[in-house]
Design brief:
The structure is a single chain. This protein has 243 residues and is of the alpha/beta class. It is 30% helix and 22% strand. Strands 1, 4, 5, 6, 7, 10, 11 and 12 form an eight-stranded mixed beta sheet that branches. It has a two-stranded antiparallel ribbon with strand order 2-3. The protein has a two-stranded antiparallel sheet with strand order 8-9. A hairpin with a 2-residue loop joins β2 (26-27) and β3 (30-31). Bound molecules: cytidine-5'-monophosphate. Cytidine-5'-monophosphate binds at residues 8-11, 22-23, 52, 80-84, 87, 106-108, 227.
């Protein structure tokens, strides 16, 4: 029985304001997707990798990931879709019958440590069929009313509730699943995959929508998500600390 990791790298990453897709932006001289792939490989619990890539960039992504000496795993590259959900579905289509565990990990979290990867896989192999890493939330979080902000002037939103912070977790990747459950969750949610406003922002959300249980294991601050230039600066510092 084997573990397949789907590494999502098909996003455009426009918020970083580069000409390059985010996964190919470099951190300490290497693309984000390479950092993420190295850590998945060095966890020792991943058997093969499927990387989702932006249209037309298959060869570029294959070159940087498959030829990296620290990614000693079989690597396949598949073109992603219009949303992250669609990209994961494209990767999941390549899972084989022996891949009993599937991890889904974002190249946008390049420094997720090998211990975190192992923790997630261990929890799935212990019988928890859907596992996400999560961190306690330090900010107080408010739920606000849906709807566009007021046109012109100061944008204000109406607060609906303040959930108990002690029970909130900020969820990261890699997320780990029993393959059959993840396939069923993506099939059931397929109608949402085409549009950004409808699509699931994580895979556990699709499992929850099925009514199935999702478990949380301890996350890791190093698994931060790169969205802005500031995140890239923080990641650069963390990388320097690692060496
Ligand atoms: O854009 P965001 O940072 O939320 O994307 C999360 C992850 O999903 C990134 O690693 C990105 O490359 C990936 N993604 C994808 N296909 C899309 C959109 C995002 O693989 N259509």
């Amino acid at each position: 029985m084997t573990t397949l990791a789907i590494l999502t790298a098909a996003g455009s990453g426009t918020r970083l304001g580069r000409d390059l897709p985010k996964a190919l932006v470099t951190l300490g001289g290497f693309p984000l997707v390479v950092h993420a792939a190295r850590r998945l490989a060095s966890s020792g619990v991943v058997d093969s990798l499927v990387v989702t890539c932006p249209a037309g960039l298959d060869a570029a992504v294959r070159d940087v990931v498959a030829q990296d000496p620290h990614v000693a795993l079989p690597v396949r590259v598949v073109e992603g879709g219009a949303t992250r959900q669609a990209s994961v579905a494209a990767g999941l289509a390549l899972a084989g019958p022996d891949d009993d565990v599937v991890l889904v990990h974002d190249a946008a979290r390049p420094l997720a440590p090998p211990q975190l990867v192992r923790r997630v896989v261990e929890a799935v192999r212990a019988g928890h069929r859907a596992v996400v890493p999560g961190l306690p939330v330090t900010d107080t979080v408010k739920r606000v009313a849906a709807g566009p902000p007021a046109a012109g002037g100061l944008a204000v939103e109406r607060v609906l509730e303040t959930p108990d912070r002690a029970l909130l977790r900020a969820v990261q990747t890699p997320q780990g699943f029993d393959r059959g459950l993840l396939v069923r969750a993506h099939a059931a949610g397929a109608a949402r995959a085409g549009a950004e406003g409808l699509a699931a922002t994580d895979d556990a959300g699709l499992v929850e929508a099925l009514g199935e249980t999702v478990h949380v294991v301890a996350g890791d601050a190093a698994a931060l998500k790169i969205t802005t230039e500031r995140d890239l600066l923080v990641a650069t510092l963390l990388l320097e600390e690692e060496s």
